[in-house]
Specification:
alpha/beta; Aminopeptidase; two-stranded antiparallel ribbon; globular; UCP029730; N-FG_amidohydro
Length: 265
């Protein structure tokens, strides 16, 4: 049998699984993008998908790459993201959960994920999922060693319609366990804006399927927020710039709100 070391999933043409933008950011925020890219390792071809499907929401969080970079600059924060499509391996899922490399997504059959063997799943985990989360853990450890406080911001986007149902929210703030103070303060700041339709644990609830925030923030007692923005609002550069400004101002105001209540760290 060929071992993973003899036949690695990622080759020379493939991008690294994790990248850090604005590494020297000095604010307390660390932004992560679990689904910022839609790359597929060359060895896996196209997963049997048409290009149009590889560009759809099933493959990545549309707009998050550009928004993450803009928000990182606005907040003076690092943005740690990974390039590979969520259809190869979903870095916001337990890597061995069936949804992590789905055979079908939003009604689209993924031929390259049909009848995946344990060895093939393990290769994807070893090449992409594990290095990405190790990079996050290393960045958090570095910040802790430097006595730099961290608020963990997980940035996502969502499709305007799913299963034929329109989703009215422009932005959603997800929260559940751990230290929810910042998420709740951010939610309050956004709800105070009459011009924005805000979801509280909408269009998704943070639950047992989420992986990144529970793994990195819950156990450490780290403040966090998982942020979801509707993808049609990030389709153009103007929308990205507008939402970067909105989030920057809301995040800073949320910090002030926490300090004013005496609940700060």
């Amino acid at each position: 049998m060929v071992t993973l070391l003899e036949n690695p999933l990622l080759g020379a043409p493939d991008p690294a699984p994790a990248r850090l933008f604005n590494a020297g950011g000095q604010s307390p925020f660390l932004i992560v993008g679990d689904h910022a890219g839609n790359a597929i390792p060359q060895q896996l071809g196209t997963l049997g998908l048409l290009e149009a499907d590889r560009m759809r929401h099933i493959a990545w969080d549309i707009g998050v790459y550009d928004l993450g970079k803009a928000l990182a600059q606005a907040l003076d924060a690092p943005f740690l993201f990974q390039h590979y499509s969520r259809l190869v391996i979903d870095c916001n899922r337990d890597p061995y959960h069936p949804d992590a490399s789905p055979a079908v997504s939003d009604g689209i059959v993924i031929p390259g994920n049909a009848e995946l063997t344990p060895d093939r799943i393990a290769a994807r985990v070893a090449a992409i999922h594990a290095p990405y989360h190790s990079r996050i853990a290393a960045e958090l450890a570095r910040r802790a060693a430097a006595a730099q406080p961290t608020i963990f911001l997980a940035l996502h986007s969502f499709t305007p319609t799913l299963d034929g149902t329109s989703r009215p929210w422009e932005i959603g703030i997800l929260h559940d366990g751990g230290d929810t103070r910042f998420a709740e303060a951010l939610l309050a700041e956004l709800i105070a804006r009459p011009d924005i339709t805000v979801g509280d644990n909408e269009p998704y609830q943070m639950d047992a399927t989420d992986y990144s925030v529970p793994r990195h923030a819950y156990a450490a007692g780290m403040p966090y927020a998982e942020i979801e923005i509707r993808q049609d609002l990030l389709a153009e550069a103007g929308g990205v710039a507008a939402w970067s400004l909105t989030l920057c101002l809301a995040c800073k105001a949320a910090l002030q709100r926490i300090a004013a209540t005496g609940a700060g760290s």
